[in-house]
Write a structure and sequence with these properties.
Largest sheet: 4 strands, antiparallel
Oligomer: single chain
Structural class: mainly beta
Mean pLDDT: 94
Helix content: under 10%
Distance between the termini: 53 Å
Strand content: over 45%
Order of helices and strands: HHEEEEEEEEEEEEEEEEEEEEEEEEEEEE
Number of helices: 2
Number of strands: 28
Strand order of the largest sheet: 1-28-27-26
Shape: globular
Low-confidence stretches: none
Length: 331
């Protein structure tokens, strides 16, 4: 494996700087969009629908911005697009060889990573790019808020940024541990990668410099930045607790224990609600800016390996190990 850690090109650096300048001015002043879910409405969520098993052993799950189509990846290397309302696979793409480990939307394009070390991108069902820079399993993907940079991390201890304007590798940075999770800060200037060594490693996107490390209790299973840019939620593999780090203080300011192993954490767009999911159920906690206190408006025994917020957070969708999707919302 040849590693290029020279940093991003001037064009991509300019893109990162422009994105950060634009988003950092507005993110803390954002008000919830019209029609966004309230705590009262969230507390009345119940399971209202469950699909048939779509992909047995599915590990990856992503909703598009409209909340009407989901990406699911299976053990057989297939990546499917599922209509949420019809609960069927409407389109299928070949991501293998290997199992699909992660998938995400880039606008209307789909991306997937595999155990064989490949990252693929499709547009309208047609494969438009394939990358094979990792020497081993690719464990997670993340998309920069500009939508022009895709990141992947792998068990080969490296992360790779891809320039999606030209569909080429932009840079590859070698770290000191196998990596399992990935997320961009909502301003796009920082990149977090969780490792099997129990550290969440935070890097400067432009230079690849290691900006900070946060210690956990074991291999990192999930990371999620809050959209206000202040917090980072993390969970270790096998752990029953989520740690919420304040990036300004580099300290844990809140913990959530759901009394069962955690597989996924997901902030909503407003940074009010944090969904925490695992094989024994789902919990949502809320932070109130006015009282500076946490509460728990929702708890359900719906098993999940992945969880996503629906449109305007008026639903929660949970993927289980059978590849079925359970929808929770107000009846």
């Amino acid at each position: 494996m040849q590693v290029d850690s020279s940093g991003l090109s001037d064009d991509l650096v300019a893109k990162v700087e422009a994105t950060q300048e634009k988003l950092s001015k507005t993110r803390r002043k954002r008000t919830p969009p019209e029609g966004w879910v309230t705590a009262d409405a969230l507390s009345s969520f119940v399971p209202v629908d469950k699909s048939n098993a779509l992909y047995a052993g599915a590990r990856s799950f992503a909703l598009n911005t409209r909340g009407d189509f989901a990406l699911l990846g299976g053990k057989d290397g297939k990546l499917g697009i599922s209509s949420v309302s019809e609960k069927t696979i409407s389109q299928e793409m070949e991501a293998g060889p290997g199992s699909v480990t992660d998938a995400l939307w880039i606008g209307d394009r789909a991306a997937a990573a595999t155990t064989a070390g490949n990252v693929k991108i499709w547009e309208n069902g047609t494969e438009v790019a394939t990358f094979s820079g990792h020497a081993g399993e690719v464990t997670a993907l993340a998309i920069h808020p500009s939508s022009d940079i895709l990141a992947s991390v792998g068990l080969d201890k490296s992360y790779i940024f891809y320039d999606l304007t030209i569909n080429r590798v932009a840079t590859q940075v070698l770290t000191d541990a196998a990596l399992t999770t990935a997320a961009f800060h909502p301003d796009g200037h920082l990149f977090a990668a969780g490792g099997v060594d129990g550290q969440i490693k935070v890097y400067d996107v432009k230079t690849g410099t290691n900006a900070a490390n946060f210690d956990s209790t074991g291999p990192i299973a999930a990371v999620s930045f809050s959209e206000n840019g202040t917090w980072l939620a993390t969970a270790a593999k096998g752990s029953t607790g989520v740690s919420i780090w304040d990036l300004r203080k580099a300290a844990v300011v809140h913990t959530i224990d759901i009394a069962s192993p955690i597989s996924a954490v997901r902030w909503d767009y407003t940074a009010q609600f944090l969904a925490v999911a695992g094989p024994s159920g789902l919990v949502v906690q809320q932070y109130s800016k006015s009282t500076k206190e946490w509460s728990e408006p929702l708890k359900h025994a719906v098993p999940a390996v992945a969880v996503e917020w629906g449109f305007n957070a008026r639903s929660l969708l949970c993927l289980d190990t059978d590849g079925s999707i359970t929808t929770l919302k107000t009846e």
